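ARCHIVE CARD
CATEGORY: sequence design from structure
SOURCE FIELD: tokenized fold
FIELD CONTENT:
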């Protein structure tokens, strides 16, 4: 299937999994990958999610013609695709190049992102990284993608993968070459990375729940580069997969799936909190909701909860977030100020830290 971008290009996408599910998950490709790169991971999520895969413009089955695209434009393409599918909230997982697009979606369209999963990610470039990138680009110019792939694979797959490949290297090369026949298109993707500056300061603006997952043996992006991403995003979780290289959706599928599932599911199971412990909690100053519509709905839910509490002594479940993570409490709400909900005269929760109120 194809989605028409704002500049009238064809962006290829697929929808997999449970088409009746209200939960949505999108995977974003690495530099020279296509939608097929996620085949090994799909089964683990297929029962619970509608899964969206897409090729960026200049990738796979999407249009390879047109002007160069930066990461904000890639993010806008994905945002438009999600809107066309009437998806309001989505869990996003991006690998390498795709993780940069995911970063820009979280920055530019935070209301769209439920959970952010950054695989083999980075925010700045080192001299070592630039030397590898130059070798890839020279190989592409000299011998096309076939030569580039020969140069690339030792940096994106671990030594252990070469010794015990899940997919034999010759078959991997053959399948990749059929999806990257346009060297000019691939070069445009590489230029987007080259043009992107140091993004560590910008990442501090990301407020959505984030996990950064990195391979211990990633030769292209050593662990410290992934760690810098995690350090820049407040409250993010950082995980290292032992022995894995760069291409986590190929050589570390079970470990990657487990970490993603545990992270996503953790927000759905908030820790219960005792009412008398509320005033011991620490609450950051940032708003947990991302859109005016969500904030307005929260206000209506609080007002209804107050009516239920005062008139019928009905308890509601309050899902909120302190400096440690998502928590919940079941209690009555007796009142409200401009900044707080009142559980009684002495116990309060800041409104801006409340995710949801359920009857």
């Amino acid at each position: 299937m194809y989605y028409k971008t704002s500049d009238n290009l064809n962006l290829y996408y697929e929808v997999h999994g449970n088409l009746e599910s209200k939960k949505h998950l999108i995977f974003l490709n690495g530099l020279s990958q296509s939608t097929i790169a996620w085949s090994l991971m799909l089964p683990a999520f297929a029962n619970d999610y509608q899964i969206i895969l897409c090729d960026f413009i200049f990738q796979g089955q999407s249009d390879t013609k047109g002007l160069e695209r930066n990461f904000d434009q890639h993010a806008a393409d994905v945002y438009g695709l999600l809107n066309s599918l009437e998806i309001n909230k989505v869990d996003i997982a991006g690998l390498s190049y795709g993780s940069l697009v995911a970063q820009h979606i979280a920055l530019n369209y935070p209301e769209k992102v439920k959970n952010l999963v950054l695989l083999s990610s980075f925010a700045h470039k080192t001299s070592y990284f630039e030397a590898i990138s130059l070798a890839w680009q020279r190989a592409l110019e000299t011998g096309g993608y076939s030569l580039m792939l020969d140069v690339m694979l030792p940096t994106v797959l671990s030594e252990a993968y070469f010794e015990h490949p899940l997919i034999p290297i010759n078959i991997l090369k053959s399948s990749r070459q059929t999806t990257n026949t346009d060297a000019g298109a691939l070069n445009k993707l590489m230029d987007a990375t080259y043009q992107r500056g140091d993004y560590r300061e910008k990442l501090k603006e990301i407020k959505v729940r984030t996990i950064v997952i990195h391979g211990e043996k990633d030769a292209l992006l050593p662990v410290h580069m992934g760690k810098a991403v995690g350090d820049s995003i407040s409250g993010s979780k950082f995980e290292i997969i032992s022995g894995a290289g760069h291409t986590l959706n190929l050589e570390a599928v079970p470990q990657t799936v487990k970490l993603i599932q545990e992270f996503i599911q953790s927000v759905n199971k908030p820790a219960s909190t005792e009412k008398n412990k509320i005033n011991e909690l620490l609450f950051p100053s940032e708003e947990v909701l991302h859109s005016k519509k969500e904030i307005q709905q929260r206000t209506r839910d609080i007002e209804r909860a107050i009516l239920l509490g005062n008139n019928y002594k009905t308890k509601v479940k309050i899902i909120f977030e302190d400096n440690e993570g998502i928590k919940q409490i079941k209690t009555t709400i007796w009142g409200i100020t401009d900044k707080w909900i009142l559980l009684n005269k002495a116990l309060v929760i800041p409104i801006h830290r409340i995710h949801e109120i359920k009857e």
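CARD ANNOTATION: The mean pLDDT is 95. The longest strand covers residues 10-17.
SHELF: design records, drawer C
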